[in-house]
Amino acid sequence: MVEQDGAATASGASEAVAAGGADYLPILLVPALAAAALPLIGNPVTWITLTIAALAMGMMIFVIASGLTLVFGLMDVLNFGHGAFIAIGAYLAMTTLVPLAGWIQADQLGLNLAALGLAILAAMAGTSVIGWAFERVIIMPVYGQHLKQILITTGGLIVTEQLIHVVWGGDQKPMPLPTALRGAITIGDVAVEKFRLLAMVVGLAVFVAMLLVLNRTKLGLLIRAGVENREMVEALGYRIRRLFVAVFVAGSALAGLGGTLWALYRETLTAGIGSEVIVLVFIVIIIGGLGSIGGCFLGSVLVAQMANYTGYLASKVALASNILLMVIILMWRPQGLYAVGGR
Amino acid sequence: MADALLTLEGVHTHIGQYHILQGVDFTVPRGAMTVLLGRNGAGKSTTLRTIMGLWQPSRGKITFEGREIGGWATPDIARAGIGYVPETMGVFADLTVRENMILAARAGAPDATRLEWIFAFFPALKRFWTQPAGVLSGGQKQMLSIARAVIEPRALILIDEPTKGIAPAIIDNMISAFDELKRGATTILLVEQNFRFAEALGDHAVVMDDGRIVHRETMAALAADTATQTRLLGLSLEAHG
Description:
The structure holds two protein chains of two kinds.
Chain A: H1 6-19, H2 29-41, H3 44-75, H4 82-97, H5 101-105, H6 109-139, H7 146-168, E1 173-174, E2 184-187, E3 190-193, H8 194-216, H9 218-228, H10 230-235, H11 240-266, E4 268-269, H12 273-288, H13 293-313, H14 318-332
Antiparallel strand pairs in A: 1-4, 2-3
Helix pairs in contact in A: 2-3, 2-13, 3-8, 3-9, 3-11, 3-12, 3-13, 4-6, 4-7, 4-11, 4-12, 6-11, 8-9, 9-11, 12-13, 12-14, 13-14
Chain B: E1 4-15, E2 18-29, E3 33-38, H1 44-51, E4 59-64, E5 67-68, H2 74-79, E6 82-85, H3 97-104, H4 112-121, H5 123-127, H6 138-150, E7 156-160, H7 168-183, E8 187-191, H8 195-201, E9 204-209, E10 212-218, H9 219-224, H10 226-233, H11 236-240
Parallel strand pairs in B: 3-8, 3-9, 6-7, 7-8
Antiparallel strand pairs in B: 1-2, 1-4, 4-5, 9-10
Helix pairs in contact in B: 3-6
């Protein structure tokens, strides 16, 4: 029996980077962008404040975008209706918090977090159910048809926003922060808003949980394999359609969680809250590489950094700067920071 | 001839506006290796994909173990006992070799004895066990693809051109592995253009041309009949042999 892998090992080594296992280069973009912003901002305290704000914002965008990138990667579904789940999640959380006003206004962190926890649960449960129905009614008939997917999911978003107007009214709603999460913690000259710390913790927890599921469970392996080659997953005997529905529902629930965090971050909400953030979300998943959770995480931080730094330096070009960031990254890596398999 | 494990009767397949399979009829006898031969574009890979449900037949009947499977979804066909090694190999490059094998073993963790049997033929898989499959060479990816198909016993394995672009020494290992599988009563339907490989393993030969079966006989008879080879397969056998 002959073993023929000596030469192969050499060629394999050159492919190791492409496989994504040990490709740390894109991670360096985060400190590089921060370092490039420092001389432009000038004041180190402002720079630190903006960087922390960017990390918090990045975590919220990641929570919203993570489900969408898997949906995109797994079934090539372009879901422009993802913004609807963000908005519905935020409104469900707001509604849940109304009878819990006493807990929110109490100056006790435990009660505040309990109220928030219940609101988040309601948001995620509600968006799960709505996501499941959305997939059955709107997505399923247009598998494999990108143009129809864009049209019908955008239509679904518009209809949902109008339904929100019908149910909750068209005026801007307040989404007050719980008492113990208001204000900032001061470290030296740097003030860090408490809610931003919470958003960072939640975002990191979601990221770690997703990594554990994707890397340590058979369900996660199936999702990763399906993102890369769904036909082969089916040929191995797994029903990818069921997997996709599960991922779609989970992605909708995460959008509900992200919508709740985003509304608390802004302290107000309107039916258009999802549409406002969805452009950034799409930039993130394209930058990160379709279907890549690591890329999505990194893309979220980069987009949030760009939004915060340019928002401070030249607010009128904040969105344009992110589109420029996307163009530069795609010129460097056309498949995004972390291309998944052969995509 | 032994009883038929798989039978195709008048199978037609359309891909978009193209009519690729135009009434394919053949039988795969149980416990033997049937080699599907033919020029490029004859419809061999489409035949395997149609059996696997990756293309739906527009007409005709596909019977496996006495059950009509034409029109079944791919996962159901796989669960019925058919393994598939596509021409593209279909390894999950971002998953490790181990993770690829875990997915292939549907019934649970990969069986240790079976794994050792596979490692004996394809030792590179053991060495790269925890590495992403994307770092493997083409030959190693082919080993992995075959290993996935045989990690659990399957009644039938469909293999699409496993020797394409593979080093001769790895081909020898494949011959040994397939020989063992045959001895274990696994039925194999192989699409192959490498005649040396096909001749070494094949029991039955089926030749396709323009989406139809144009010739059937034993592999030994076809190997001895150079005139038929030249008429049906042109120079392709010689060129690949």
